[in-house]
Design goal:
Number of helices: 12
CATH architecture: Alpha-Beta Barrel
Radius of gyration: 20 Å
GO biological process, one term: carbohydrate metabolic process
CATH superfamily: Glycosidases
Strand order of the largest sheet: 1-2-4-5-6-7-8-15
GO cellular component, one term: extracellular region
CATH topology: TIM Barrel
Order of helices and strands: EEEHHEHHEHEHHEHEEEEHEEEHEHH
Number of domains: 1
GO molecular function: chitin binding; chitinase activity
Number of strands: 15
Organism: Homarus americanus (American lobster)
Keywords: Glycoprotein, Glycosidase, Hydrolase, Signal
Oligomer: single chain
């Protein structure tokens, strides 16, 4: 159970504020602190020194994070470098030059050791794209090899977060060459649809929707996982990525509120995450419970969506308890290494919508381990199919 932690959640308002100490270190096997970056000197860079470090009256985020192992000694703590906002150019330039690569690797190991991390998680989004060059595909493997060797020599691990889209996989990754130079591959099987499209759809659908056609048939979790496996990655090195947030649109016509409804703009920002086009699960479930937002599980689908006209004609796709049961069982059946969540700080960590804190993350972990007792109802199972006719 890999749990990413968005360190900027410390700056959220009211009940959205989430500190390192709010993480329950007994739910996850791996916790990943995001993000570090890469500096102009090609060294790993601390992006928020006041929050991450102790110097100059800082908040000591790194050290507090690795101190979670004092509560659970089996917990693996990692630092993630990269992310979408970092882009690709600086990583492309560094990986193309052996001397620059060595500077990055050496500085990374030093930083991890200094703060007691157990490994690195690399999120280069993406080799060959977003400012990258074709040579990135080969250079990415070289970079992984050097990191893997240096980290293992120091008793640490290397994991990567990778794209779920077929077009990106084809260009960015030499999958067979990756196998021996990474310990775990976290597949970002979310943001498969979103408000950058002008129609509604589920951002993390397990199987293709009945009206999907053409390239949209590739935009589902099942396709992505199978594509990684068929490409040569052992299933036992893959995690299925699960979003603990919803992707939201503003409906053009409130009378049209199903899949593929016209929606020209992102959904209104939530009160805690304050970002157009997305809401944390904690925000969505709170609106559903308190403001009676309509919840629908379309026939043939395994995930819910919700809409409400009083909140700006909003429509959000998201994951719930029952969809987490289904997808954790899917991961078991596919013999995957486990599951990954982005990010734990938008789960229902205050237990406003459930009888327990972090219900979605707990449900994923427990179901995957075979210990989930709060099973999905039979009627819900009958309405949420296994997708065998859509594979």
């Amino acid at each position: 159970m890999v749990c990413y932690y968005a360190s900027w959640a410390t700056y959220r308002v009211r009940d959205g504020k989430f500190e390192v100490e709010d993480i329950d270190p007994n739910i996850c096997t791996h916790v990943v602190y995001t993000f570090a970056g890469i500096g102009t000197d090609n060294k790993i860079e601390v992006l928020d020194p006041w929050n991450d470090l102790c110097a100059n009256w800082g908040k000591c985020g790194y050290n507090r994070f690795t101190d979670l192992k004092k509560v659970n000694p089996k917990l693996i703590t990692q630092l993630s470098v990269g992310g979408y906002n970092e882009g690709s150019t600086s990583y492309s330039n560094m990986a193309a030059d052996p001397a620059k690569t060595q500077i990055f690797v050496t500085s990374t190991v030093e930083l991890l050791k200094a703060h007691g991390f157990d490994g690195l998680d690399l999120i280069w989004e993406y080799p060959t794209q977003r400012g990258g060059v074709p040579a990135d595909r080969k250079n990415f493997i070289t970079l992984l090899g050097k990191l893997h060797e240096a980290l293992h020599a120091s008793g640490m691990i290397l994991t990567v977060a990778v794209a779920a889209l077929k077009s990106t996989i084809d260009q960015a990754y030499d999958i067979p060459a990756m196998v021996d130079v990474v310990d775990l591959v976290n597949v970002m099987t979310y943001d498969l649809h979103g408000p950058w499209e002008k129609y509604t759809h589920h951002q993390s659908t397990l199987y293709a929707y009945k009206d999907d056609h053409g390239d949209t048939l590739y935009l589902n979790q099942n396709f992505s996982i199978n594509y990684w496996i068929d490409g040569g990655m052992p299933s036992t090195k893959l995690t299925l990525g699960m979003p603990l947030y919803g992707r939201c649109w503003t409906l053009d016509n409130p009378d049209q509120h199903g899949y593929n409804a016209r929606a020209s703009h992102p959904g209104k920002a939530g009160p805690l995450t304050q970002t157009e086009g997305m809401m944390g699960y904690n925000e969505i479930c709170d609106f559903i419970n308190k403001d009676s937002w309509t919840v629908v599980v379309e026939e043939g689908c395994n995930e819910p969506y919700t809409y409400n006209m009083a909140y700006g004609n909003i429509w959000c796709s998201y994951e719930d308890h029952d969809s987490c049961v289904i997808k954790a069982n899917y991961a078991r059946e596919k013999n995957l290494a486990g599951l990954m969540v982005w990010t734990i700080d938008t789960d229902d960590f205050h237990a406003e919508c459930s009888t327990r804190h972090f219900d979605l993350t707990r449900t994923l972990a427990e179901t995957f381990a075979g210990n989930e007792t709060r099973r999905i109802s039979q009627s819900m199972l009958e309405s949420r199919i296994d997708g065998s006719n859509l594979r």
